[in-house]
Structures are given as structure tokens and as C-alpha cells.
């Protein structure tokens, strides 16, 4: 369909959760000197203007990154993520928000590699231009799921795969499970993170059961809800399903999620969750 544009939603509460998890995984991989591959299957445009027409129309960032930005002090777990946001806003005012590929580019080292793909005809040229001078990056206009077949396993035998589709179709919930199975068959030791929205809870319960049925071990679920589950239209929560998470990630998210929930949801509705779908 290719109608989804992340520019309407950049910097919202779901981005805060997703990019916190992403940053913590990358920082963990950097603890070893050996290089690794970052593979982003649905990369978007890379950078988003928060004063632009799309972001201003929804104003979702005002209840997301803007609330974090206004805090005088933040937990240690958020600092590398916020450093990546600050890199786009050197004057201190919040004008731009980095998508997942730009956050990765800021955090990765010179000898690490990025493989990023995007199909949208408007977003791909923006993404390609964003990385035109980054020799670490391979930017392609291809189906991100095909990258799991063609780019895995990486030569370094170390890698982090982020799968963040638009979920325009109900089949996207099954596609991410198939994508993980495909990647895991080729590269079982890699770290994989799947972002998901909670629109109908039953879809997420079904997806979790599908992950359990794969037989893959070490699957961690992390979720942040800003409202109670509902059968009405709209996203009430979002989450990350992480395969082969770094050993510290569970405790890091259990530590930081209550703070995030308090700041992002001052009225106290919703919930947080960190639990294993399948343990080791």
C-alpha cells in the first residue's frame, strides 16, 4: 500500500520506547571491539522536522519526546538515545527528530556497518540523501524482508536487525514472525528487535503465540501503554519483541520503564511490561 508516512508520528511515545531499546542494544554490542552489522528493514526517511506540516498536524511528539526533552535530569538508560536526538538539535531547541537509522548512525563506530532499506517513493530519496556521505551505510530501495535473506549472516558474524513495518495490513503481524524465522535460520546468534503497535490486543496475543510456536528461544517482550486496551480506533500502546537480547536489557528496561511511564503518561493510565515470551 505504501501510504504510511512516519513523519506524522515521529517522536511520539512509541518512538521513545523503540529508540530507547534500540540504543541500549547498540551500546551493548559496542562493549566488544569486533564490528557488527546494523540492519534496518523499514528505515523511513531518516530525519523528521517536528515543525513540519505532518508532525504539526498530529502533534504526537508533544506527548512523546517533548516531555522527555523538558526534564532536567533523566535516567542513565536514556542518555545515549538523547545524545542522538541532541546531535540533530545542537542549539538545544527541539526542531528535528532522528528515525532509527540516524540513531544507529550516530551510535555506531567507524568499523561497524549499516544496511538500511525503504520502499516508500517519497521517503527513500530523503533516506538516500541523508546517508550519501556515510561510507558505513548501504541504502537500498528494496523489500526489507528480502534483506534478511540476502544480507544475513553478516561477515562479522555479529549483528542487530530492527524490523519496524507500518502495519498497514493485518498480515504484517504474521509477516514479522516469518521474517524473524527467515533471519534466525540464517543467523541464529544475531539480535533481532520487532516493534509493534497495540490497536487490538487480540492481534498482539496472536502474534505472541506465533512467536512461541517458532521454537526460537530467548524472546523478550517490552511494552509501554499510554491508555487501557480498547476496541475503539487508535493505538493505545506499543512494544518491542527482542530475540537474543543483551543480558542487561531486561533489567535496564525494568529500571527505566516506570520513569518513562510517569513522564509520558502523567495521568497514570496504561501499563508497562517486561517479560519473557520464551526464556533461554
Helix content: 25-40%
The CATH class assignment is Alpha Beta
Oligomeric state of the chains?
single chain
Largest sheet: 8 strands, mixed
| CATH topology tier name | Rossmann fold
- Provide the succession of SSEs: HEEHHHEHEHEHEHEHEEHE
**Spatial strand arrangement across the major sheet:** 5-4-1-6-7-9-8-10
Please mark out the parts with pLDDT under 50 across 5 or more consecutive residues, or reply none.
Answer: none
Architecture overview:
The protein has helices spanning 13-29, 53-58, 65-69, 79-87, 100-107, 123-130, 144-150, 172-186, 201-213, 249-264; strands at 37-40, 47-49, 96-98, 113-117, 137-140, 159-163, 191-198, 219-225, 237-243, 271-278. The longest helix is centred in the N-terminal third of the chain and has 17 residues, at 13-29. Helix 1 (13-29) packs antiparallel against helix 10. The strands form two sheets. Strands 5-4-1-6-7-9-8-10 form an eight-stranded mixed β-sheet, sandwiched between helices. The N and C termini lie far apart (37 Å). The protein has a single domain, classed as Vaccinia Virus protein VP39 (Rossmann fold), CATH 3.40.50.150. The protein has ten helices and ten strands. Strand 4 (113-117), helix 6 and strand 5 (137-140) form a beta-alpha-beta unit. It is an alpha/beta fold. The record marks 4 as: Interaction with substrate rRNA. This is Ribosomal RNA large subunit methyltransferase J. Specifically methylates the adenine in position 2030 of 23S rRNA. Keywords: Methyltransferase, RNA-binding, rRNA processing, S-adenosyl-L-methionine, Transferase. It is an enzyme of class 2 (transferase).
Amino acid at each position: 500500500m505504501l501510504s504510511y508516512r512516519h513523519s506524522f508520528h515521529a517522536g511520539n511515545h512509541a518512538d521513545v520506547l523503540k529508540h530507547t531499546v534500540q540504543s541500549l542494544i547498540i551500546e551493548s554490542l559496542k562493549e566488544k571491539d569486533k564490528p557488527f552489522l546494523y540492519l534496518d528493514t523499514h528505515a523511513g526517511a531518516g530525519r523528521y522536522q517536528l515543525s513540519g506540516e505532518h508532525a504539526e498536524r498530529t502533534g504526537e511528539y508533544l506527548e512523546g519526546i517533548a516531555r522527555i526533552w523538558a526534564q532536567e535530569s533523566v535516567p542513565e538508560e536514556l542518555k545515549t538515545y538523547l545524545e542522538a536526538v541532541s546531535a540533530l538539535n545542537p542549539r538545544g531547541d527541539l526542531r528535528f527528530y532522528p528515525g532509527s537509522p540516524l540513531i544507529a548512525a550516530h551510535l555506531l563506530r567507524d568499523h561497524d556497518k549499516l544496511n538500511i532499506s525503504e520502499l516508500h517513493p517519497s521517503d527513500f530519496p530523503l533516506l538516500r540523501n541523508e546517508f550519501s556521505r556515510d561510507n558505513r551505510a548501504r541504502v537500498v530501495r528494496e523489500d526489507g524482508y528480502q534483506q534478511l535473506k540476502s544480507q544475513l549472516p553478516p561477515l562479522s558474524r555479529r549483528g542487530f536487525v530492527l524490523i519496524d513495518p507500518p502495519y498497514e495490513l493485518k498480515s504484517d503481524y504474521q509477516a514479522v514472525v516469518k521474517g524473524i524465522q527467515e533471519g534466525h535460520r540464517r543467523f541464529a546468534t544475531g539480535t533481532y528487535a520487532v516493534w509493534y503497535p497495540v490497536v487490538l490486543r487480540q492481534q498482539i496475543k496472536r502474534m505472541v503465540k506465533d512467536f512461541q510456536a517458532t521454537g526460537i528461544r530467548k524472546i523478550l517482550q517490552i511494552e509501554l501503554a499510554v491508555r487501557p486496551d480498547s476496541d475503539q480506533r487508535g493505538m493505545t500502546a506499543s512494544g518491542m519483541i527482542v530475540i537474543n537480547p543483551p543480558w542487561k536489557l531486561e533489567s535496564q528496561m525494568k529500571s527505566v520503564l516506570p520513569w518513562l511511564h510517569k513522564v509520558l503518561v502523567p495521568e497514570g493510565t496504561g501499563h508497562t511490561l517486561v517479560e519473557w515470551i520464551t526464556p533461554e
